[in-house]
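Section 4.2 – Deliverable D4.2 (structural model, holo form)

The reporting period included a commitment to supply a predicted holo structure for the target in complex with iron/sulfur cluster. Inputs used:
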Amino acid sequence: MANKVTIYIENKPYQVDEGLTILEAAKTVGFYIPSLCNWRNHDCSLASCRVCLVKVEGERRLIPSCAYNVREGLHISINDPDAVAARRTSVELLLSNHSMNCQACRKNGVCELLDVSRQVGARPDQYHGAKTPTTLDEVAPGIVRDTSKCILCGRCVEACKKTQGIGILGFQNRGFNTIVGPTENRSFNNVPCIQCGQCTLVCPTGALMEHNNIPELDEAKREGKIILAFAAPAVRASIGEEFGQKIGTNSTGKLAAAMRRVGFDKVFDMNFSADLTIMEEANEFVRRFSQHAPSPMITSCSPGWINYIELNYPELLPHVSTCKSPQQMFGAILKSYYAEKNGLDRSKIFVVSIIPCTAKKYECQRPEMQVDGVRDVDLALTTRELAQLIRRSGINWNRLPNEDFDRDIIGDNTGAGVIFGVTGGVMEAAVRTAYHILTGKEMEPVDFTPVRGLENVKEAVADIAGTKVRLAVTSGMVNAKKLLDEIKAGNVKYDFIEIMGCPGGCINGGGQPYVFPPMLPNEDPDIWETYREKRAAVLYEEDRNKPLRRSHQNPDIQKLYKDYLGIPGSPLAEKLLHTTYNTKREQYPDVTPETKPVTK
Amino acid sequence: MQLRKEAVEVVVQICDRYKDEPSPLMLILSDVQKEYGYIPMEVQQIISAKTGIPVSEIYGVVTFYNFFSLEPKGKYVIGVCVGTACYVKGGQNVLDKFAELLKIKPGQTTEDGLFSIDNVRCLGACGIAPAVSINGKVYPKVELSKVGSIIQEYRTIEQKAMEA
Ligand code: SF4
Ligand code: SF4
Ligand code: SF4
Ligand code: FES
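Output (structure tokens):
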């Protein structure tokens, strides 16, 4: 327990923890001082935005509350007229260099800048002047950058550097010409960006967002395509947040109902193809493990992670499982087995995946991700984009019934599939099935808890009938880098490693709903610390409640192998469900006119 | 663009020079600028690999300070003053004229490597505004119509050197 000190806000005493900034301390006792550049408390404070100014007794000037620590007896005024006016001026100055078209901005409704503007009572058109030349990067499939909306808060710079250890984004130029962007103001496609979207989760404005692909969906509808959609596990754990539900609400039933009402012709649960991935991956692991080649094997279902290893450690690619991700496997099965059994013309099928991830937008466009010239997945829409589809379809979320996803020769799924959406879940699901492959028996109990939780690196040993299998699980590229450096140095401590691109796994993917505590009045003030656990708990609970919890017990999967694929790793399974990697990806490919962002 | 092997070695050596410094970036960049004349992307990537500092951060520093440049400077560096006095007397127009005739923007270098243009903040020659300096030689009260002949002066020098 931290020591307590007494501070006074508008002369009323409050007990707060020592060592906090005024901003943080005030939050613990019920005050949200507006802030923009500050983010997740201590994680970043450039103290550059000046929207958090307060009056502190004894100080001549107003104080940025995000960069000033509390101490015993400190008198603070948030509502001091000078402080109020100064905060308003700070915001008005930001707005004077901002492309203000909220009505047409996709961030409207979840925009922190707009929220803070309202909080401080910003007035229109207070300051006139030239605006900084702007850049619009819509080249990359995953994320887009529009500097006309950037307030130079630097949060994205910190997020990319601290949570991913990559450092794609930085401040460049100076003074009036300062912008935030990748080196040389390049597109995300021409730098070693993994398109994970973690930067979009922290951007307070519409400057960094997922690539909007809804227009392509409309195009496909106009062309009369048969639209087959499926939703990833993590989407059910968060989509309700977009419609005001508390973080940690399970929305599986409403999700299926909403997708149907949006007008997809079939709606499936991607847990099905997660089970399929486990069948292929667990078998691949058992094969590699017995041949000791090359050890450790690393999972392949996170496309952000695949981007990372291709761009930074291509020499370690032989360690990566050749399994496609569940998204791609589902697409490949829909356009082969499903189409054939239902007498559908492959070229008429348009596959849409609903995913928590911006990197999956990149993944589905990869040249490797097609079979006989037909793309596995035509479009990947994030949780946030699905919410927009639901909104524009006039659907009242609260009144949606709970429905089931479709089952039509495919679609059944187990608890093993649903935990794919959280760090450790792929490993746990794989262990459940690998146990069965190696022993012919079922692992009891079915839970394998050492790989659960949000620690940076989790280690475990699975005892499979006397054989010890050494496991490691990590997420976020800062952590992955440590493991990769060890492998590179020849220090092999594990047999099987699970790596996911985003910290905490897909539940915290770059396409998930934003978590901005000031805009979530019904959440606890420490929600920043707990939202990942709450979303993870949704998935573990769904797993617990499923009648079947092991991928190999999924009846539709068993039938798929019996009637079509043969066995895991069969030539047909290889063709449809496995892939190759690009060992020659350049970190900084030359910029061409097509890959240059638009500047004006 | 591929760097020559020797150039890579020079950069690596410079990085090694400061490997024990707590914040080596400015020291490295200054030395590279001095020894190499400019700091292109490829060099920034080497510095990044050696120091672990992201390229974006290095690029940020290089573009923040005028002292660093991303492109090689020309043999003749034309500094056009756009300080207040020169600006009032048409310094900006002079700058634009040089840019127009040389077909480059301030900060860039002509393809033949002969000229680059910088806009400078006051040469301390306000009495003779607008002023231009080329490799240290100051041209007073430059009129727009003179810009062409100033450029020609250097082209002629080069031509003579070629013929000799
Ligand atoms: S970023 Fe926010 S303030 Fe700016 S236009 Fe979009 S909604 Fe409005
Ligand atoms: S998408 Fe990921 S890697 Fe790319 S800039 Fe954003 S945080 Fe960095
Ligand atoms: S892009 Fe967004 S997060 Fe990054 S500096 Fe600009 S406003 Fe801040
Ligand atoms: S939040 Fe304190 S200065 Fe930006």
